[in-house]
Amino acid sequence: MITENCQLIGKIIKTHGINGELIMITDKELDNDLLKTELVFLIIDELPVPFFISSIKEKSSTSAIIQFEDVNSIEASEEFIGAKVLLPQKKKKRKKVSPDPKESIIGYVVMDHKHGNIGLATNIIMNSENPLLEVKKGLSEYLIPIQDEIISTIDDTSKCIYINAPEGLLDL
Fold first, then answer.
1. For 20-147, where are the alpha helices, taking DSSP H only?
2. Do 21 and 84 share a domain, yes or no?
3. Do 78 and 132 fall within a single domain?
4. Residue 170 lies in a domain
5. Pair 7, 83 in one domain
6. What are phi and psi of 168, to 5 degrees?
7. Taking phi first (over 0 means left), then psi (-120 to 50 degrees means alpha), and beta for anything else, what does residue 143 get?
8. Domain count across the chain
9. Would strands 47-60 and 109-112 be described as parallel, antiparallel, or unpaired?
10. What is the pLDDT along the chain (172 residues), one digit of tens a residue?
């Protein structure tokens, strides 16, 4: 589960202003990992939900004003009051099997923690902003962003790539 790869860092306590900003408190001093992060998870209905951060400002040593993408009003932000905030932990990079990363994972089975086997890795589309893993199974084709938040483990022994697909990614 995603929460195993995350660290509890705080809680949303109230709204701030009229543009959907929220105040988050932490148990310890804020660190640079949080202030530089682009993604956090909020626990909503006991499930981790990813949110992209559009801005985060230190309010005090243990609190911050945070704004999420597409949350632009008090009404929209009020539903997050009381939610726990999780920060994805940085993954240790695996050793490459081959000098060319494309060759090292092509042909691996891609397994999602919720949906199971979604197909074989057939290509890596290199895009400087968002490289994508192309996965095919039968007539279905998926493009999976190569991000630590999505790819949880690459197992060279079993030739499997384990992912945590965000809601809707595999619905297309």
1. 32-36, 74-78, 101-105
2. yes
3. no
4. no
5. yes
6. 95, -15
7. beta
8. 2
9. unpaired
10. 456 678 888 999 999 999 999 999 998 888 777 778 888 889 988 888 888 899 999 999 899 999 999 899 999 999 999 999 988 765 444 433 334 454 578 889 999 888 888 999 999 888 777 888 999 988 889 999 888 889 888 888 788 899 998 888 887 5
The Cα–Cα gap between 110 and 80 comes to 33
Examine residue 169 and state whether it is found in any structural domain, yes or no: no
Distances (CA, A) of 77 to 13, 21, 40, 55, 72: 11, 7, 15, 14, 8
pTM over 0.70: no
| Angle ∠(116,122,125) on CA atoms, nearest 5 | 110
Place of tokens 């009404």: 75
Residue 163's CB is within 10 A of a number of other CB atoms, namely: 28
Contact between residue 133 and residue 143 where contact means Cβ atoms under 8 Å apart: yes
Buried-state track 59-81, b at ≥16 Cβ within 10 A, e below 16: eeeeebebbbeebeeeeebeebe
Which tokens hold the place of 130? 């968002």
Are both 76 and 108 inside the same structural domain?
Answer: no
